[in-house]
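Hey, can you fold this one?
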Amino acid sequence: MLRSHYLDAVRAELSATYPLPQWPLHWSKFALTRSEQDFLLHETKFRDKWPTMMDADFAPPPSANAEQASSEATATWKAAEFGPCNGGRVLDLTGGSGVDSWAFEARGAQVTCCETDPYLAELLRWNGQSRHRTVHEGPAETFDGGHFDLVYADPSRRAVHGERLDWNDLGTPDPRLHLKTWLTWAPTVLLKLSPMVDRNAVARIFPTADLVVYVSRRREVKELLVRIPRGTPISPPKVLAVDVDAFGTEHYRILAEAAAVDVAPEIGAFLHDPDPVLRAAGAEEAWARQAGLQRAAPKMHLFTSQHGSSLPGGRHFAVESVHHSLPKDLGSASIVAKGFPERPEVLRKRWRLAESSERFLFALQSGNPGRKTFVVARRLTDSK
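Sure. Predicted structure:
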C-alpha cells in the first residue's frame, strides 16, 4: 500500500514541475495507490500530527478520517497512562485510522480492532502486519467478545456524508447502550469522547466512571477520556487536566479540586491566563490556589498577582499599564478579550491594532452593567 522509496522519486518529480494543488491531476502517470496519494497530498499536515508514525511507512487514512483521529501526542500519552504492556490485550472497538492501536502496540500490547469501512480495515491490516494485529471487519456491535485487559472506544461523531453530528450525540457505537457488555470482556473500558462534552454531563451519563481526563496540546483541548472500571463505582470521578508535547510527554497534570479563590481588589503587577484545558476540567481554581493567585474579576477566567508566577498551566504577563478607556497610542498588541461580546479579531479591526507577539492588550468587561478595563501587558512565559 505504501512504497517509501518510490514516493521519494514521485515527490521529487512532481515538486519540480507542478504546485502541490495540481499533483492529483497527474496521479495516473505514477500508478499510485489511494494511500500513497493521501500521503503525498497531505504529508505536511500528517507529519505534524503523526511525526514518528510517518517515518515508519505508515499508510495514512483519507484526510477526512485523519481530522477525527488521535494525534501521535495524545495516543502515546493515552497508551502509556491506560494501556497494558508486555503482551496485554486491547480491544479497539473503533479502529478507524489506527493511531490508537499503533500507540497501544508500541507499549507491547496485542491489539484486536473493529472497523466497518473496508478501506480503513485494509489500512489497519497493512499498518499492523508487523505486530500481528487482528482486524474484525464489521461493526463493533457484531463483535463476538472475548477476554481483554482493556476495551477502548472512540465513537464516530461524523455522519455518513461527512456532516458533523450534534456534539451531544455520543456517536457510534453508543457506549450508553453497550457499556455493560463491554465490561464483561475487560475489567476496564476507556472512552474517548468529544472534548466539548461537559464534565458534569460525563458524571451524569456514566455514573460508574472513576476518572475523567481532558488532554490538551498547544493550549487546545484535544480529547476527553473517560475510564470506567468494572465493579463498585467511585463517585464523583476524579477529573484531571493534562497537557502533552508532540511525542506524548506530559508537560503537567492538575487535579480539579474545590479551592476558593478570592477576587482581587484591583489588577496587580502580573496577569495569569490559564490554559483552556484547566477550564474544561474545572481545575483552574486549584491551579490558581497553588500559585497564590486571585481572580481579576468575579467569574472571569483570568487571574492576577503582585508576585508573579511561572507555574505550568497558563500564560504569564507583566502588567505595564491599566486604563479605563482604550489607550490611543498603543499601535500594536495581541488582543485577549474576557467578558467582551466581540471576538478579538473584531476588536482588532475596529481599533486598527497591528499584531504583536510580545505585547498584549487585555480587554476586560465585568459586572452589570459591564465595566470595561484595558490592561497592557508584556508576555513573560507560556505554560510550556
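Residues 270-381 form one domain. Let me know if you want another pass with a different chain boundary.
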